[in-house]
Design brief:
Radius of gyration: 25 Å
Distance between the termini: 58 Å
Strand content: 25-35%
Number of domains: 3
Shape: globular
Oligomer: single chain
CATH architecture of the largest domain: 3-Layer(bba) Sandwich
Structural class: alpha/beta
Strand order of the largest sheet: 3-4-2-1-5-6-8-7
Number of strands: 28
Helix content: 25-40%
CATH class of the largest domain: Alpha Beta
Length: about 575
């Protein structure tokens, strides 16, 4: 087929490849796209990864590209599982290397096929061809350029009703909040050509939870690779790739911090035994996560580590404000910034959201409004029913001269960073308290945890009270809220996420708890893809786990109470 004719009149052209291999097929496709003056504005390639590596652990991986018109998603999963979790409309399928895959993928492949999608295959078995025909693919002779031994070509001609393609949005948005969540939202939307107005009550970015001197970035590991682990892994790996595109992290680079590694110590011998079993499974490449026994950990750290710990070589610390600055700088002229506006109110009228200051002056107007203002979202009437909590966190700033010089971030129940500008950050507390002032009790709690980490009961003795208090926005399940906000009052007897009524044009990037540094860019990418109708960069089950409307369904289940067989 002539792919250039196929993509000519489409705003986005999506290709699925069943084997990425060494990437040669993707590079050829991208070169054809680049050299076609009548190309689709956006080429989206989705490919199964068959060569696992430290950056391609199980799951979906969005790989940043130099050109904004090209997107590459690599899926590390068997084809049937990957397609079952894919949210996309595919225009062209390139199938090869599937002789041992069975025919179970056919139904899921048809589910994501766009009307009149084309299929180019090599080596499909008769069983696979039959299964695809049963799902609406019509096999026909290949065009001259696609002929060859064992080649098969088909088009998707199913008459089953297909969900309508939503219209492209008007690319104008307001983002409320200039912390790391809001800054990421601006950057990801501006990168797609949106015009964005950023509204912030403070005089500059990163004045609340994103204002700490240092935040740490690291993944999670778990025995069952549960939902929080998978989500955190996806966000962490995206952050590492994305920060490089923004200018990198380290001295003289765009982001202040160090990719110095993180050592997470085991809590005790029992905890170490569980972690040792995870490591023995062999699923985690050493560059991503390596279990160190006590002698190895102590040699690296230069301090006691009696039960060993996980070494995350790619982890480290970063100043969240510098990440905000890098993201906002990348927005260029598409971003308008409204700082120091104080309290605001919002209103929906005639298909537009408007934001007004406390004197009634209009600050911005757009069809899309994104709440990225953390716990401040609780003051917005449409978001008030969401079960969000503001959790106080106090970080202690300690003179570096009072502590041993650490080569990396050290953590367990708390963390301590290597020195920067003569200070070390240690903390942070989790307090149910609305006091924004530094607390001697919280300071002492940080010092006690620090001494436990360092195995030194005298460490930082007499350290002055210094640090910072911030308030994290936390949901009951400790997962972020990413997506369109639900209308609790209109929910009625809704039982499924897709049926929950939503507020028009109102979205949330909320509930990042203490992991906003890595959640921010990736969650903004997910939301931007939802707004644009792009293939999503995450398995659909994990997208559902982040949907703000999950709390509508949970509220209904709670209100019904325990059910019996007679009910």
């Amino acid at each position: 087929m002539d792919i250039r004719a196929a993509w000519r009149d489409q705003a986005r052209y999506t290709v699925f490849d069943s084997d990425y291999g060494d990437g040669a097929g993707f590079r050829i496709l991208a070169d054809v796209w680049r050299t076609d003056p009548q190309r689709s504005p956006h080429l989206h390639a989705i490919a199964l990864n068959t060569r696992p590596g430290p950056d391609l652990l199980p799951g979906f991986h969005r790989m940043p590209q130099a050109e904004p018109g090209i997107t590459l998603d690599l899926l590390s999963a068997p084809i049937d599982a990957a397609l079952a979790q894919l949210t996309a409309r595919v225009d062209l399928f390139r199938l090869h290397g599937l002789q041992e895959a069975g025919a179970g993928f056919a139904r899921a492949l048809a589910r994501v096929a766009a009307p009149q999608a084309r299929l180019l295959a090599h080596g499909l078995t008769p069983e696979q061809i039959g299964a695809l025909e049963a799902q609406g693919f019509v096999f026909e002779p290949c065009a001259d350029g696609d002929r060859g031994a064992d080649k098969q070509c088909a088009r998707f001609a199913s008459r089953k009703p297909r969900p309508p393609t939503p219209p492209l949005p008007e690319r104008r948005a307001i983002v409320l909040g200039a912390g790391i969540a809001g800054s990421a939202a601006c950057e990801r939307l501006c990168a797609r050509g949106w015009e964005v107005t950023l509204v912030e009550r403070h005089e500059r970015p990163a004045m609340e939870a994103s204002g700490n001197r240092a935040g740490i970035f690291m993944p999670l590991v778990s025995r069952d690779d549960n939902i929080p682990t998978r989500l955190t892994r996806a966000a962490y790996l995206f952050a590492l790739r994305h920060w490089e595109r923004l200018g990198g992290i380290g001295p003289g680079r765009a982001i202040e911090g160090q990719a110095c590694g993180v050592l997470q110590l085991a809590r005790d011998a029992g905890h170490a035994e569980v972690q040792r079993a995870i490591a023995a499974g062999g699923a985690l490449p050493a560059e991503f996560a390596e279990w160190l026994e006590a002698p190895q950990a102590e040699s690296l750290l230069g301090l006691p580590a009696p039960d060993g710990g996980w070494l995350f070589r790619q982890g480290g610390w970063a100043r969240p404000g510098s990440v905000c600055e890098a993201m906002l700088a990348a927005c260029g002229g598409r971003l308008q910034q409204r700082f120091g506006v104080g309290s605001v109110r919002i209103a929906w009228q005639d298909g537009q959201w408007s934001v007004h200051d406390q004197h009634g002056a209009e600050l911005a107007r757009a069809p899309t409004l994104i709440l990225a203002n953390g716990a401040g979202a609780r003051q917005v009437p449409q978001a008030a029913p969401l079960p969000l909590t503001a959790m106080r966190g106090q970080v202690s700033h300690l003179p570096a001269s009072m502590l041993p010089a650490l080569p990396l971030v050290l953590c367990r129940e708390a963390y301590v960073t290597p020195p920067s500008h003569g200070l070390v950050s240690a903390g942070a507390t989790y307090d149910v308290d609305d006091n924004a002032e530094l607390s001697p009790a919280s300071h002492e709690e940080n010092l006690q945890r620090l001494r436990s980490l360092l195995s030194d009961p005298q460490a930082a003795q007499g350290a002055p009270l210094a640090g910072r208090v911030g308030f994290r926005c936390i949901a009951p399940d400790r997962l972020p809220l990413v997506g369109r906000l639900p209308d609790f009052d209109a929910a009625g007897a809704t039982e499924r996420l897709r049926d929950v009524p939503r507020h028009p044009g109102l979205y949330g990037l909320l509930g990042y708890a203490s992991r906003g540094l890595i959640w921010a860019g990736w969650a903004a990418e997910l939301l931007a893809a939802q707004l644009e109708g792009e293939p999503l960069p995450l398995e659909s089950a994990l997208v559902d786990a982040l949907d703000p409307a999950r709390f509508v369904l949970r509220a209904r289940r709670t209100s019904r109470g325990p059910q019996t067989a007679d009910n």
